[in-house]
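A further point concerns the way the authors explain their paired sequence and structure data. The central task, working out the structure tokens from the amino acid sequence alone, is never made concrete. I therefore recommend that a typical entry be quoted early in the introduction. An entry of this sort, consisting of the sequence and the corresponding backbone structure tokens, reads as follows:
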Amino acid sequence: NEHVDYVDVGGAYVGPTQNRILRLSKELGIETYKVNVSERLVQYVK
């Protein structure tokens, strides 16, 4: 909107122990993919 210049899309990551949400995403046909967790990375987009 005209008052803010960002959008919060909520949670974006699901951990490997969150079995229920992973099962639900599979049932709904939502594609998931692994992210790099072995390195210490920071991504900043402006």
